[in-house]
Input
Amino acid sequence: PVASVASNMGHLLGTGLLNDGESAAVAERLLRPEMFTGFGLRTLSSANAGFWPLSYHCGSVWTHDTAIIIAGLAKDGHTTAAARLALGLLDAAEAFDYRLPELFGGYSRDDAPRPVPYPMSCFPQAWAAGSAAPILDALAPAEHAAAGHEAVHAGPLGKFHAANLAGSGALGGPGRGTAAESGPIRHCP
Output
């Protein structure tokens, strides 16, 4: 075994495999500066001897990896931690014209005020695009309509209403709609 702190532990969040104490310990560990860059979670702790911020598996930030952990944090009730990571990814998204790449450099926000592009990153990237759902859910938890595909989201980004949500229910909706049935998303005054 290799004694390392890596983002993989965050994949256990929200699965029910951790007790409350273990979940809290994982959440706390992931939010430390050697894991959280300010934009996302490194794949490997910066305190590890093998860390390199532009290494694919040993220090870069994978957008979808951070998003999976955001969803797990939210499900386990660590909503403040989930929102902190989501806001970090949202800041990274702005730097990439709101088209998150597969991964980016694991440099600290203190050292690099903008996320550093990874030289060979796929852009756009499908699983990175899917990160939008956990980001939205963490920043604007839905209040769901009882009888359908509707949600009203309210949070740090303001309040908006989404109707006829399609997909797997990542936004909390029942997931029975189709892309053709999706309705408009509109900002609420």
About this structure: The first strand starts at residue 61 and ends at 62.
